[in-house]
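Q: Focus on the chain.
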Amino acid sequence: MGNMRLLLAVLYVLIEIDKGAFVNPCDEENHSILPNGGWRGTACKRTREKSICDRYIETGKNKWYKVLGHDDKLPRKMAEGPVRMFYCGTNYPLYLPKGSHPTTDGTIVTKNACMHAGSDVCKKQYPVQILKCGTFYLYNLSRPDSCDVAYCFGENLECSKPDPCEEKNRLNLPVSGDRSTSCQEKSLKLCDSVLRNSWYRPMNGNVDVKMPTSCVERNSCGTEAPIWLNGLGPSLTDKTVDMKACVNLGKTNKCSCDREIDIQVRNCSSFLVYNLTSTPNCPERYCFGNTGECHVDSKGIRLSYPLI
């Protein structure tokens, strides 16, 4: 009965959103990630270099936003204020009145968000629709009529860590052909034990390459124990997910997942970046790409190129 009530509630919402159009905003493909999510916390003070302006966000009847900073584990709720000026990564923060969020799944409510400016904690108001989707909320926002005004998300949250999508906050991982799954050479025993723990953008020349997401056989990628990604990376732009990378040690068969390494993968719209750690043993190596030639080294075990 509980599931049936939820289904009926969601259907009602869908009909009310757009008569005759059966689109569920709660589905991942039917909502967007609000830009600059990680800098919208109420404890995130704006900087001289960065002030969020929501004057130009996309709006519309079915334009729903989820708010997720790149290093957030869970989506954020809009702040219920008041909120101090010069926080939430902007000059004039927008916040909801206390108790604005609905508690029933599938319910949409409309509330006025207040703008704090000077001594007036609610100088202007902008209507916001809020939809509860199980464990998270979606927001249909109004566009402010001036800049340096932005919506707040995340009670008492500090500014996000540096975004690895920005070049200054990551390292490039040069990917040669011997890192690819097509390199299958038993004499190669390359190792990533000297790899610096950091965010990486893997590139073969000027071309972005990805970690394989299906099991890689032993003696591939220029090593004995290749490492591959157990699952698909994030499909949404600006999203970071915790994932497991599998080490194939050949304990069960030619293609296996004998040990896991915790990594993170972030979607930077046109490319992916990976938060990698050095391997604890040799010869173990991360795989990237599926084309390229091996470069045979007769010296036996050697380390991958150390990044500094």
Summary: Residues 2-17 form the longest helix (16 residues). The chain has one helix and 17 strands. The first strand starts at residue 32 and ends at 33. The two ends are 59 Å apart (CA to CA).
